[in-house]
Amino acid sequence: MDLPHQLKAVTLTHVRYRRGDQLGHFLAWISLVPVFISLGGFVSHFLFRRELQGIFFGVGLVISQFINEFIKTTVEQARPETCALLEACDSHGWPSSHSQFMFFFATYFSLMGCKGIGFWFGLRSRWILNLLHWCLAVVTMYSRVYLGYHTVVQVFAGAALGVVVGGSWFWVVNSVLYRYFEVIEESALGRMLCVKDTSHIPDVLKFEYDNARAARKNMEGGPKSGKHCLANV
To answer: Are 59 and 81 in contact (CB under 8 A)?
Structure first.
C-alpha cells in the first residue's frame, strides 16, 4: 500500500512556503485569515453577542463554501503544477475557496457598513475598517498565487463569486429574512438561546452602555429572573 496516496490534507489549513522565504512565511499566515475569522470571529460572536445579523452572516459564509465545493467538484479544474510540491494535487483549484471566502466577507461587511448595521464607529472609521477588509481580501488572493496553490484565473474566479454570493446573500437577509427576525427572537428556541437583533438601533454601543449602567444601579434589591439563556446556566 502506498501510504502517501491514501492521505488527504485539509486544504484550508494546510499551507506551505519555501524555507527562508520571509514574504512566503507572511503570506502563509495571511492565507489562514479565513480560519481566524471563522473560529475567532463567528464562534465568539455567537457565544457572546448572539446577533441575528452576525449569525446569518456566518450562515452565508457556510453556504458560500458549499457553493464553492460544488463548483470545484463539477468543473474539476486542476491546480497549477506546483501543487505536487505542496501536496495539494488531490483537490481542485477553480474557483479558489480562500479568495471566495475573503471577498464574500469584504462585500458583506461593506454592505453592512453602508447600511449602518452593527457598527459602533463614525463614518470615517467605517471607511477605514472597510478598506482593511478589502486589503486583506486582495492580499489573501495574491498569497494563493504566490504560494503556488492557485493560478491567477482561479483566484479571480473565487473573488468574483465571493462578491456575487456575498451581495446576493446580503439582499436575501435584509430584504427577505429580516421580516422574520422578530419571529425568531420570540420563538421558544430564540428565547432559550437569547438571540437578538439590534440592527434597528442607531447607536448600539451607547444603548448597551446605558442599559448596563442602569442594570447595575438597579441590581441590588431588584427582582431576579428565574430564566437563563442556554450556556449561561
So the answer is: no
